[in-house]
Design brief:
Arp2/3 complex 21 kDa subunit ARPC3, binds magnesium ion, binds adenosine-5'-diphosphate, two-stranded antiparallel ribbon, about 425 residues, Heat Shock Protein 90, 12 helices, 3 domains, 5-stranded mixed sheet, alpha+beta, elongated
């Protein structure tokens, strides 16, 4: 009843644009340009799907336009999703102003509204969760189409209906799972490539840092000493005092930068000990709590249990201090920071979620680059140091972020056996 090559062709029509996009176009261009290219490829795929539909032997035809339509929303963004929706309406209108057009209008408008509510969440979640969301959205859309069809054809043969519904649902749901899985795998491959580049960059910087930073530190100490002596001097004018204060704070800043730099260059395995990460993070939270309260931010601490890793205590301390501090600094006005811990396989994951200003994809990519900062008094070294330390521990930092929604830093660290 159902011809398999028919389905394979439909799958090809959906997959080829995806492959073309991720093989040739993904790396080039800005995120906006990429979104537009992807959206247009989805429209092409919709066009082909609707022009060459699937045919069951009973004579009923249908197509898989829902798949590229949903992809346009999920990977091209809301605007490209709307373009794809408009394209479907237009093309269906050209085919004919009949009941099928009304069904399309009804099903895709309602689905678009639902998809809209899932878009932000979709960006932030892991693969399994993504598969679930796309599965449910496809299911909803196909059911809406089926309801429309049910209304329009009052007289039908029971067995044909049963077959049609089954094939319709199964082919859609299967296809979306396959396609999302492939897209995510291709994306991960690309991300790994840029991560490797990043690691290389950090290594070079680290080596340079070792030589320069050490040399700069000594003269700084001398200058600091003299400032201290001058400060104790009696008859100083107020402007002289404030100048000295300014020199002092600026020197401190320089010292922080050098400290960060030096810790980058430190040898890999100094003073490794078995530590309970949860206990360590708790102590960092204690330190940061007053800073957070000052800014009207609550730290929701959901950490419990004990997870042991082998690492240098100071270094891990610095990782969490940096990331928690960044989280707090990303929030304007009131907000919260949520800390969670979980065990997955042989590693512990600590996630730090803020509801701050978030970052664009481009900005997330720049994280960890030396001197990348958006703050007036930032050093742009914090995250670079974090990446380097976690990398040395054979761990990993993953960042999910959405503008105006917030950011989640997940730190994966291997447990001691
Ligand atoms: P700094 O904090 O000194 O600016 P970092 O390396 O710690 O340097 O961070 C680099 C930049 O990354 C920050 O300036 C900020 O723009 C961005 N960033 C880091 N963490 C977050 C976060 N949780 N939310 C939003 N932006 C962040
Ligand atoms: Mg920072």
């Amino acid at each position: 009843m159902f011809s398999f090559d028919n389905y394979l062709f439909a799958l090809l029509v959906v997959l080829v644009p995806v492959f073309v996009y991720y093989s040739f176009l993904y790396k080039k261009g800005s995120p906006q340009k990429n979104a537009i290219t992807f959206g247009l490829l989805c429209c092409l795929s919709i066009f082909l799907s609707m022009t060459y539909p699937l045919e069951l032997s009973g004579g009923q035809i249908y197509d898989l336009r829902t798949i590229p339509w949903l992809l346009a929303y999920l990977y091209g963004g809301i605007n490209m999703g709307l373009v794809a929706t408009a394209f479907i309406f237009l093309y269906r209108f050209i085919i004919g102003l009949d009941i099928g057009f009304i069904i399309t209008l009804f099903a895709y408008s309602l689905s678009s509204i639902t998809v809209y509510f899932f878009l932000q969440k979709y960006k932030m979640v892991e693969l399994t969760e993504k598969l679930k969301i796309s599965f449910l959205l496809t299911l909803l859309n196909t059911i809406l189409v089926l309801i429309g069809l049910g209304y329009s054809y009052q007289h039908f043969d029971q067995t044909i209906v049963f077959d049609f519904v089954t094939y319709f649902l199964v082919s859609h749901l299967l296809t979306i799972l396959i396609v999302i899985y492939i897209i995510e795998t291709l994306q991960e491959k690309e991300q790994n490539k840029s991560k490797l580049l990043q690691a290389e960059r950090v290594k070079i910087i680290g080596e340079m840092a070792a030589s320069v930073a050490h040399e700069v530190r000594n003269p700084l100490t001398v200058v600091k000493g003299f400032i201290y002596i001058f400060k104790t001097e009696k008859n100083l004018t107020t402007s002289q005092i404030s100048s000295l204060e300014l020199m002092d704070t600026e020197l401190q800043r320089a010292e922080t930068i050098i400290h960060n730099y030096l810790s980058l260059a430190k040898s890999k395995t100094s003073d490794m000990e078995k530590i309970d990460v949860i206990e360590l993070v708790q102590s960092v939270v204690c330190v940061m709590n007053s800073y957070a309260l000052l800014k009207g931010i609550t730290i929701v601490n959901n950490l419990e249990g004990s997870y042991y890793i082998k690492a240098n205590r100071c270094e891990v301390n610095q990782v969490f201090l940096n990331i928690i501090k960044n989280g707090i600094e990303s929030i304007d006005g009131k907000g919260h920071l949520i800390l969670r811990a979980s065990k997955k396989g042989n590693s512990v994951t600590i996630s730090i979620t803020d509801n701050g200003k978030g970052m664009t994809e481009e900005e997330v990519k720049r994280l960890g680059s030396p001197f990348y900062t958006t703050k007036d008094y930032g050093t742009g070294l914090g995250t670079m140091v974090c990446y380097k330390i976690v990398d040395n521990l054979q761990g990993e930092i993953k960042v999910k972020s959405s503008v105006n929604v917030g950011t989640t830093f997940s730190i994966f660290l291997p447990l001691v056996r």
